[in-house]
Specification:
Length: 528
């Protein structure tokens, strides 16, 4: 019986492992290069053929094969060619992988001489390597594009990964496992498929003289209705009237909801701006977001907090289930919230606030110059380099930037009642706010870089995960004494501050305003 139980347990374990979708990406640090063993009937490659590629990784790969061809299998060649041809489904550009030249080689493969077979083999390997890199790490490097993006690069061991794929019984399945596996990436791919089903559009730019309210009559509403019909918010009607009727009101509200606008049925500048996006622009927007998701961490963590900056939303995920969401306020365009991944480490109750340099220069010093009473009204104490308190009347503009400005804890503190810390080089964090009414705004890019969280005490209670010592009642007691207290977050919770402006839900395209104006520029860089 014991032996039978062990056999059953082993079978269950194996079947569970098979059910897991494990990434086939091999990082450089994981294992060293074993030699590649070419299949039978491989052809000798003249190493000078590799010179023109000027690619050390490619040369190292063929050195490991003892300069022999590896793509003798017609089935494997066709699997790779098909993958490269449909790389646009991943937001990539098939032209980057020499698909026309490769297809021409494949058509003639049965009649190619040894020299051309060697050339074909090298080109196929080169293109496949490039595709794997683009698929797993993106086409561009965000660290070279943006100063405030701090994402760790996944150093892919491309030749190890390629060798592993070659040794596989199912190359197509293994390639699939190279692709980002996050639900948002999959929803972006679905969004790309959805938008490709829309016909070509040739609309003229919509313009309105004033906002349009329900039941208004205006000639502009006819063109607006045509746009709503195109985006499938409104049923086609042979006779379109100029009345902003009930059916169109419902269509506008659905459109506003899909685009993160105020769902008020008022057709104003924001709604018109979203209606004016063409199919081409929306498709490009989806493509750049697919690129971004190739930059993001391969593994988000078993339990993690993720913030989508343009959606002004924090989501807490555990074991792939969404447990809670919170509205957030993020940095405005001039003081952008950075993009990063970290760990949540500490909670600070009744935090003090040390004024950062940018806010000091642009906000606090000008306010003091207008009125010295600003300091006492804002509950800010000023300290000199020796730690001595400087009174408002001793304060001197010539020393203004050498002082340290600290706002005391309390109801009026800019950080509110709680701050949640995660290590990062930008000195940003999550925090409460003394302006909670701002969460009702649609455009919530209002902060100086840090992220303000709605209902932060509920999130804090969850993160501290101690029903006895850190329930809401105990937290309230701590807050009432207005003394600063630091508490370590004991469980491991990953933290991701990310940026994406498109996805899909329930077969609907979802878009958000590109609040930092990154999309169009990124698309240009991707395709140039």
């Amino acid at each position: 019986m014991n032996a039978l139980f062990l056999i059953l347990l082993l079978c269950v374990t194996i079947s569970c492992k098979k059910a897991e979708l494990k990434s086939e990406v091999i990082l450089k640090k994981e294992i060293s290069n074993p030699p590649v063993l070419p299949e039978d009937k491989s052809i000798r490659i003249d190493s000078t053929l590799l010179t023109s590629f000027n690619n050390k990784t490619l040369s190292a790969f063929y050195k490991s094969t003892n300069y022999r061809t590896i793509w003798q299998s017609e089935e494997n060649r066709k699997i790779i060619l098909e993958e490269l041809l449909k790389s646009d489904e991943e937001g990539l550009n098939p032209e980057d992988y020499k698909v026309k030249t490769l297809s021409d080689f494949e058509k003639k493969s049965a009649t190619l001489n040894d020299s051309d077979l060697a050339k074909y083999d090298i080109l196929l390997t080169s293109s496949f390597q490039k595709y794997i890199i683009h698929l797993t790490n993106g086409t561009l490097n965000p660290r070279k594009l943006y100063k405030n993006w701090d994402l760790k690069e996944n150093y892919i061991n491309i030749n190890e990964t390629l060798t592993h794929l070659l040794d596989s019984d199912s190359l197509a399945d293994k390639i699939e496992q190279l692709k980002p596996n996050h639900i948002v990436y999959k929803r972006l791919k679905k969004a790309l498929r959805l938008i490709n089903t829309f016909p070509k559009d040739n609309f003229k730019t919509l313009k309105i003289a004033q906002i349009i309210s329900p039941n208004d009559t205006t000639p502009s509403i006819i063109d607006i209705k045509k746009r709503l019909i195109y985006w499938k918010e409104l049923q086609f009607n042979d006779s379109l009237t100029s009345i902003y009727d009930e059916e169109t009101i419902l269509a506008i509200e659905k459109f506003q909801n899909r685009h993160g606008l105020a769902v008020d049925a008022i057709i104003g500048p924001a709604t018109i701006a979203s209606l004016n996006f063409s199919k081409k622009q929306r498709m490009q927007q989806i493509i750049v977001n697919l690129e971004r998701w190739k930059w993001y961490p391969k593994e988000m963590g078993k339990e993690y907090v993720i913030i989508n900056i343009p959606d002004y939303r924090l989501t807490l995920v555990k074991d792939r289930d969404t447990l809670r969401t919170h509205r957030v306020i993020v940095g405005r365009a001039k003081r952008k919230t950075p993009i990063l991944s970290s760990k949540l480490t500490q909670v600070v109750f009744n935090p003090t606030w040390t004024v950062p340099p940018t806010i000091l220069r642009e906000d606090v010093i000008p306010a003091i110059l207008k009125s010295r009473s600003y300091l006492s009204e804002s509950n800010i104490k000023v300290y000199d380099s020796n730690g001595r308190i400087v009174s408002p009347y001793e304060w001197q503009l010539s020393h203004a930037r050498s002082y340290r400005y600290v706002q005391s804890p309390g109801t009026f503190n800019s950080l509110g009642m709680v701050k949640i810390i995660f290590p990062n080089r930008f000195s940003v964090y999550l925090h409460d706010t003394n302006h909670r009414d701002y969460f009702d705004k649609i455009d919530r890019s209002l902060s100086s870089g840090c992220v303000r969280v709605d209902d932060p005490l509920e999130l804090t209670e969850y993160l501290l995960d101690d029903a006895v010592n850190w329930n809401l009642d105990k937290i309230t007691e701590i807050l009432q004494n207005e003394k600063t207290k630091f508490v370590k977050i004991k469980k491991e919770v990953s933290f991701h501050l990310l940026y994406w402006t498109a996805w899909s839900e329930n077969n609907k395209l979802i878009f958000r305003d590109d609040i930092y104006n990154l999309d169009a520029d990124l698309y240009t860089k991707l395709r140039n």
